[in-house]
Structure formats: C-alpha cells, structure tokens
Write a structure and sequence with these properties.
single chain, mainly alpha, Tetracycline Repressor, domain 2, two-stranded parallel ribbon, globular
C-alpha cells in the first residue's frame, strides 16, 4: 500500500515539473515536500511494529522512490521502473534534482533508521556526476570513475545524456558554473558543478560507446 500511494503521488505531481528549466530552484521541487510529508506520517504509524519490520518498510519506501527517480531519468530501456521517463533535461533540471535528492537524504538521515539514506546513493551519484567538471575524464578512466562514483552505470548515463539539452542555461549559472555541491558522505562523490556543452556530450558519448 505504501508503494501504491507513492506511485499515485508521483504520477500526479511530476506532470508539473519542468526538467528543462530556465533557472535553478532555491529549494526542492514541490513533489519532494509532498512525498516527505507522506513518509513522515507513514513512518510514525509504523512505531508499534518491531524494529526489523519497521526498518524493512522504511527501506522499501525510500528504495522505491529512488528507483522511480532513476527510472524517470534513464528512460524506456528500463521500463521495469514503471514510470514515464522525462524527454529532456538540462543543467538546471539536474541542479534541481540534486536539491531533491539532498532533501530526501536529509529526511531519511533523521528517521532513526541506520543507513536509510543509502537508498538514495545511486541517485546522488547520478546528480553529482552530471554536474562534475571532471566527468569527461572520469568516464574515460574507469579506475578514477569507480573510485569516485562506484554506482554510476554507463548504460544509464548514456540514456540521460541522450536527452540532455545544452541550449537552456541561465546567465547566472553560466557565470557561476552551477552551484557548489560540497562533498558526499565520507567525501565520496564530491563535485565541482559544471555545465556540459555540446563538445562534452560528444566526448562522453564516444567514450561510453567504446566501453559498453
């Protein structure tokens, strides 16, 4: 039932999200706040359960959200995620998604369930990598890529790059080069925000094609 409710919230709320945005958000997308509010109420109702049962349901819910968001990004080749993929996304859309992921991680960290935020680890790697100014070099160097983004799947990354739109980036983002992302837990996945251009995309796709 929890997953069905999550699916219903996402199906309704995602229609209003512009992933090819003209500017970056200052706070997470509205659907994130709706989902977190639902999870907070739901998790409180699980208190009477044993710790094992409660933690299993919390992990199931957060993993389901993360998988849905990954499915949203990667497209129809991964239709087992059961969500209609986005058609286009740009730098601002990735920035906004990074804020969404950070909000999910902050919430899950405060739930009192050990390691719950790790449910969003792959999604975090996707957003950080796509904003990383070293991405072209990292994709070409498997050892460096695996050290920094061990869960970054090249097949999935290719699908995201196929819908990446370089045309729409706000003037502010061009001047700043995106926004400071800081470091992930334990320093993993740290990135310096960067806007991909058409040359970057060509290099990335060529490098990925040679490896898959």
């Amino acid at each position: 039932m929890i997953r069905v409710k999550i699916d219903g919230l996402l199906d309704f709320a995602l229609d209003g999200v512009d992933w090819n945005a003209k500017s970056g958000n200052k706070q997470p997308n509205d659907f994130v706040e709706q989902l977190i509010s639902f999870l907070r109420i739901t998790f409180e109702c699980l208190d009477p359960l044993s710790n094992v049962a409660r933690e299993a349901m919390c992990f199931g819910a957060c993993s389901h959200i993360s998988n849905k968001m990954i499915g949203l990004l990667v497209g129809l080749d991964y239709d087992d995620y059961g969500i209609t993929p986005i058609q286009k996304i740009n730098h601002n859309g990735i920035q906004n998604l990074a804020l969404d992921v950070a909000a999910f991680e902050t919430f899950s960290t405060g739930c009192g369930v050990p390691q719950l935020s790790e449910c969003f680890r792959e999604l975090r790697f996707f957003t950080l990598a796509l904003l990383d100014r070293e991405l072209v070099d990292l994709v070409a160097d498997e050892d460096r890529r695996m050290a920094k983004y061990p869960l970054l799947d090249l097949n999935k990354l290719k699908n995201v790059l196929d819908k990446y739109d370089v045309a729409v980036v706000s003037t502010t983002d061009k001047l700043k080069g995106g926004f400071g992302l800081g470091k992930g837990k334990g320093g993993e996945g740290s990135a310096s925000a960067h806007t991909l251009d058409s040359k970057d995309l060509a290099k990335l796709k060529k490098s990925i094609f040679s490896q898959i």
